[in-house]
Amino acid sequence: MADQLNPEYISQLRDASQLHASGADAEALPLAERVLAYARDSVGPHPFTAAALNVVGHIYQAMARPHPRQRAAVLNPDHAETRYRQLLDAAVQQQLLGHARVLAGDLINLNLNRGRLE
Q1: Backbone φ and ψ of 73, nearest 5°
Q2: pTM for the whole thing?
């Protein structure tokens, strides 16, 4: 595994996070997914990988939730659930258990919002 993080990916994760914060999730998602792929392949279990997992998870959560001015969610909730499960599996496999706990909570919230859990 690489000891040095590529500064370009650090910057891209920051950009994805800022795009998400501004509500531009459709732009943020591919950028965050690209950073996550780099992190998993290049540095493995690492705080940077955990941060990328976290950003991707938050974007999926936001995209699966209906926007107040829209009638439907931007992202199919079934797709969001599938991706959350993939992210959760990746976090557990990489022993990023704190982030796995957060992703599990987000998955539960997604299903609560969909009326699948009581």
Answers
A1: -70, 155
A2: 0.71
Architecture category of domain 7-113 in CATH: Alpha Horseshoe (1.25)
Taken as a whole, the chain contains a residue count of 118
- 70: tokens are 């829209």
CA dihedral 105, 54, 49, 46 (to 10 degrees): -60
CA distance 98 to 102: 7
Task: Give per-residue pLDDT as tens, 59-74.
Answer: 887 887 665 555 445 6
Domain chopping of the chain, boundaries: 7-113
CA-based nearest residue to 103, from 49, 58, 39: 58
CA angle at residue 26 from 21 to 27, to 5 degrees?
75
Selected residue with higher pLDDT from 110 and 24: 24
